[in-house]
Amino acid sequence: MGCNTRGPFKIPDGATMTYDVFDSGSNMDVGIVNALDGCDLTKGHAVTSNPMWNGEVMKTTESLPGGSYQIVFNCKDLSYFCAPTIYSLSYEI
After folding, report:
1. What domains does the chain contain, in order, with CATH numbers?
2. Predicted structure pTM score
């Protein structure tokens, strides 16, 4: 099990964040969290939980308060290293 992050990225008040991720065969959760929350996806936005990834997932958060956010990958596989491909990660006002 493990947590990987990309970021933090500073966004303005009211912006939404969108991620586009591809993976195959991993058991992992992905989402956007405030950088202060570390890997805690219980406080996450646009969270995707998938026990057997097989393709691409694109999600967008609701409007977020301004601050620093990161994309979090919580890998639940004990014997397999999760290595998702991030096609894009962006924000929009």
Report:
1. 2-92 (2.60.120.260)
2. 0.91
